[in-house]
Design goal:
Mean pLDDT of chain A: 90
Largest sheet of chain B: 5 strands, mixed
Largest sheet of chain A: none
Structural class of chain B: alpha/beta
CATH topology of chain A: MetI-like fold
Low-confidence stretches of chain A: none
Number of strands of chain A: 0
Number of strands of chain B: 11
Oligomer: heterodimer
Number of domains of chain A: 1
Helix content of chain B: 40-55%
Helix content of chain A: over 70%
CATH topology of the largest domain in chain B: D-Maltodextrin-Binding Protein, domain 2
Radius of gyration of chain B: 24 Å
Number of domains of chain B: 2
Low-confidence stretches of chain B: none
Shape of chain B: globular
CATH class of chain A: Mainly Alpha
Order of helices and strands of chain A: HHHHHHHHHHHHH
CATH architecture of the largest domain in chain B: 3-Layer(aba) Sandwich
Chain lengths: ~280, ~450
């Protein structure tokens, strides 16, 4: 009975992945005829010397270190503050909209919002007496802009999970806390937050995995620029593999590295945060 | 009897259905409207051939063509390709010289190959093979606000400020003063907010924009003496012996010219094609280097009415750059489809089509007869300046490694212009080394 499912899994997942690993050891380049020879570890050693690959690591790391915590804090704050509000249901639906907007549409929308001359963001900055900002023309502002897009799009995901988790917290424990005199902020800090911890960790992991793959927001807004300031690892792999030359061998090596790095990072985090135990999956 | 008739009708219908050949054309968005219109016209004249045009953006089109060629899937029968990708796409395109030899009956006697402009035709030739008929002889023009340049008040003010008459710049050095004059933050009486709209983003735009600044140096007497003549495959970026020519003091000067203009342009590093079009169309800037086809957008812009009085067109102050497109046939498709595809590309690049697509869609002509046609010259004002531009325009490399070179350069050029990398010969030499690595791989 499970054979078709296994075959499908092998064909759709394992084979492409294995083929990618194989390609990463070749010089396959679709723009040139007569390529595809085995080159050993050359693609991998080239990555270490590739300045553009290294700068892509830098921005990807920045995204993980800045955008993810902001998303987590905002998502948590929104899910906590929205409870019991008069328009809770309406706001809940409203908050989820960015996540439902296709990334290409969202990215394009933000590109217009950030436009130097016609963009509403600069218009409002001018209204309050500030100068227009070249959002996509300077390193720091371009990085900020990409992070804003990413935070706008994915905070709703964090919000959704944490909001659902807050609704599902055991009522008896909360009631006991209230009987003991905890209320509002103290109840949240000392009872709800510790109870949310396993879900928070899982959400954090999911967001880190997702941010490591960031592509759309960069593609639609800065195209990795200025220079390579906003090039993420996934975007760089795309450029090498698809957009600028079809260097399949080298691009595959970049993708394999991403998988390995993600695996190591997630594994380390899982161990450090003790997620297995938090979720009750192990008894350690 | 009825049954027999019905069967006969069905048989006829199926014969007709099978007799119709469908060819699939993949086109860049710049060419798609004209190709769709030409496809309709072609189908009226050739009811046995159906033409379907798929539009893709440049970023998607090129990889899609390469994927199709590599997989030999024949997903598309006709490719609309940028000539700078000639080296890469040639591996999957039919040699039209050979095809014409083998199929003389398909050649329209009025096609007149000699009427095709030499450079446009030669850019479609790779390794001695004609891998595409020239379709769009795109080139960069210098659009300016004619009304402002001819305004006596501004002329007088400019002369007072700079001690020379206000005129359309013929060099980038001249353009700096003019751009400064038309920038509000430097001249509060400026009628426009900025002097010039420049596009130096980290995309393929950067690669051709650099050439309009480097071109004047590369093609100068000094440049030709030092670097040798320009090779048709390697373009202006290279020396005659195929070394990066920009890694030189002349390459540095080009960057200095670019940087000198940047203060008078709105967000040059963050603006691309679309933004700069808008800046000029909405009257934000006084000048913009742009391709031929945006003319129709400018012409219909409310801020630029009456267009004849407000839109001026001149050759580039430096040198223009070629942005030609060709139509090639996938060599991995059936002979029947190849023949139908040939008929279509021959029709789409015929004398009649060349003139029609110019008048209707501002697609720059690939034929001498169109350039000389009075109706064409009256319809689109830049037609008259094209011959002088075509005579000395620069072009990018057409070698298979071009995309990778372009990517590395776009990033480094943006870093130089933003000040992240120092503007020194050492920086350019490092970039040249990166190029060498790509070329020797």
């Amino acid at each position: 009975m499970v054979l078709p499912a296994i075959v499908l899994f092998l064909v759709m997942t394992v084979y492409p992945f294995a083929y990618m690993i194989y390609n990463s050891f070749t010089n396959l380049d679709l723009s040139k005829s007569g390529t595809g020879q085995f080159v050993g570890l050359r693609n991998y050693t080239d990555i270490v010397r590739d300045q553009l690959a290294l700068s892509s690591i830098e921005f990807t790391a920045l995204m993980v270190l800045i955008a993810v915590p902001v998303e987590m804090i905002l998502g948590l704050a929104l899910s906590y503050l929205i409870r019991g509000l008069f328009a809770e249901k309406a706001l809940r639906s409203l908050f989820l909209i960015p996540m439902m907007v296709p990334a290409a549409v969202g990215g394009f929308g933000w590109k217009m919002l950030f436009n130097f001359i016609f963009g509403p963001i600069n218009y409002f900055l001018n209204l309050i007496g500030l100068q227009s900002i070249e959002w996509f023309g300077k390193i720091n502002t371009a990085r900020t802009a990409v992070m804003i897009v990413e935070i706008w799009q994915w905070t709703p995901f964090v919000f959704l999970i944490l909001y659902a988790a807050l609704q599902a917290l055991p009522k008896d424990i909360l009631d006991a806390g209230k009987v003991d005199g905890a209320d509002g902020w103290r109840l949240f800090l000392h009872i709800e937050l510790p109870l949310l911890r396993p879900i928070l960790y899982v959400t954090l992991l999911l967001r880190i995995i997702d941010v490591l793959r960031t592509f759309d927001s960069v593609y639609m807004t800065t195209y990795g620029g200025p220079g390579s300031a906003t090039s993420t690892w996934s975007f760089y792999a795309y450029k090498v593999t698809v957009s600028y030359g079809w260097n399949i061998g080298y691009g595959s090596a970049l993708c394999v590295i991403l998988v390995i790095v993600s695996g190591i990072l997630i594994n380390t985090l899982t161990r450090v945060l003790n997620i297995g135990r938090e979720l009750g999956l192990s008894k350690e | 009897m009825k049954l027999k008739l019905l069967l006969l009708a069905l048989a006829l219908l199926s014969v007709l259905a099978f007799a119709e050949v469908t060819i699939s054309v993949v086109a860049c968005s710049d060419n798609a409207d004209s190709l769709k219109w030409l496809a309709e016209e072609f189908m009226k004249r050739n009811p046995d051939i159906k033409v379907e045009v798929t539009t893709l953006s440049w970023e998607v089109l090129y990889p899609r063509i390469l994927a199709d060629i590599s997989a030999k899937s024949g997903a598309f029968d006709v490719f609309n390709w940028d000539v700078m990708t000639a080296g890469a796409v040639s591996q999957g395109c039919l040699d039209l010289f050979e095809f014409i030899k083998q199929n003389p009956d398909l050649v329209d006697p009025s096609y007149d190959m000699d009427d095709l402009l030499p450079l446009a035709k030669n850019l479609g030739i790779w390794d001695g093979k004609l891998v595409g008929f020239p379709y769009f002889n795109n080139t960069m023009l210098f659009y300016y606000r004619k009304d402002l340049f001819e305004n006596p008040k501004y002329k007088e003010e400019f002369e007072k400020m700079f001690g020379r008459p206000l005129r359309v710049p013929t060099t980038w050095a001249e353009a700096v003063d003019v751009a400064r004059y038309f920038t509000k933050s430097y001249n509060k009486n400026s009628p426009t907010q900025y002097g010039i709209a420049l596009m130096f983003p980290t995309t393929h735009t950067m690669f051709y924009m650099y050439l309009i600044f480097f071109g004047p140096y590369r093609r100068s007497v000094e440049g030709l003496t030092r670097f040798g003549p320009v090779d048709l495959d390697y373009g202006d970026y290279f020396t005659a012996d195929r070394k990066p020519a920009f890694a030189s003091d002349l390459g540095l000067k080009a960057f200095e010219d670019m940087k000198a203009l940047m203060p008078y342009s709105p967000d040059p590093l963050g603006s691309d094609y679309g933004e700069t079009l808008e800046y000029f169309a909405k009257g934000i800037v006084a000048m913009v280097p742009q391709w031929t086809n945006p003319y129709l957008q400018f012409k219909s812009s409310p801020a630029l009415q009456p267009a004849a009085e407000k839109i001026g067109i001149a050759p580039m102050p430096g040198r223009s750059v070629a942005g030609n497109w060709a139509l090639g046939i996938n060599k991995f498709i059936s002979t029947e489809k190849q023949k139908a595809a040939f008929k279509f590309i021959q029709f789409a690049t015929s004398k009649w089509a060349d003139k029609e697509k110019l008048i209707r869609f501002a697609i720059a002509p690939v034929r001498k007869s169109t350039l000389e046609d009075a109706e064409a010259q009256n319809a689109i004002p830049w037609v008259k300046v094209l011959p002088s531009i075509y005579a000395d325009e620069t072009f990018r490399p057409r070698i298979p490694e071009e995309p990778r070179l372009e990517d590395i350069s776009n990033i480094n050029f943006a870093k130089i212009l933003s000040g992240e990398l120092p503007l020194t010969l050492d920086t350019l030499n490092k970039l040249a080394n990166e190029w060498e690595k790509v070329l020797t791989k």
